[in-house]
Amino acid sequence: MLRPKEVCERLGISYTTLREYVKKGLISPVLTPGGKWRFREEDVEKLMGLVRAKKIILYARVSSNTQKDDLERQVKALEEWAKQNNISDYVVITDIGSGLNEDRKGFKKILKLATEKKISKIVVTYPDRLTRFGFNTLKELLKAFGVEVITLNQEDKDPKEELVEDLITIISHFAGKLYGKRSHKYEKVIENARKLLEDP
């Protein structure tokens, strides 16, 4: 049987975090006659495996290939955050695509890992890097799977190119429904929309 202090040392967590694990039912203490917590070593080992398996995701996104410099800046800022918080075991996931596009490869990977309860945190530079709309809703849903979403900044000063790509995504979606994505009209609508939006 292990004391709480010994459990915290083995897991590399604080006493507050241990109490949260108990509250969530991840580990159950045994009460001594004096009412103190003790933990079975086998239960601690199981929890150790669970804690170690969970990943911290650093997620960065830009809308187009021309913004790769910004993507690198995001990744650098996220890795600096990890360094400042003494976190070395993390996974960097990046996407190039609109924040309105739900088919982003990296985004879908994050959702899959979250539903499998393999993520503890997702860190982004701004809320709209993760999703353009519905950030708070997504944050609450992820919380239900034990995932904390951390944003380094609250307001992103979007460049014009980012907004253009988002608008093109919206137009593309509805034009595809109206004309079909392989039709000449669809291509013409997207071409004209891009010209209109990109003109100064």
Kindly describe this structure.
It is a single chain. The protein is α/β, with parallel strands linked by helices and 200 residues long. It folds into three domains: 4-52, Multidrug-efflux Transporter Regulator, Chain: A, Domain 2, CATH 1.10.1660.10; 54-151, Rossmann fold (3-Layer(aba) Sandwich); 160-198, Orthogonal Bundle (Helix Hairpins), CATH 1.10.287. Helices cover 54% and strands 14% of the residues. Strands 4-3-5-6 form a four-stranded parallel beta sheet, with helices on both faces. Strand 1 (30-31) and strand 2 (37-38) form a beta hairpin. Helix 8 (160-179) runs antiparallel to helix 9. The model has no long low-confidence stretch (mean pLDDT 85).
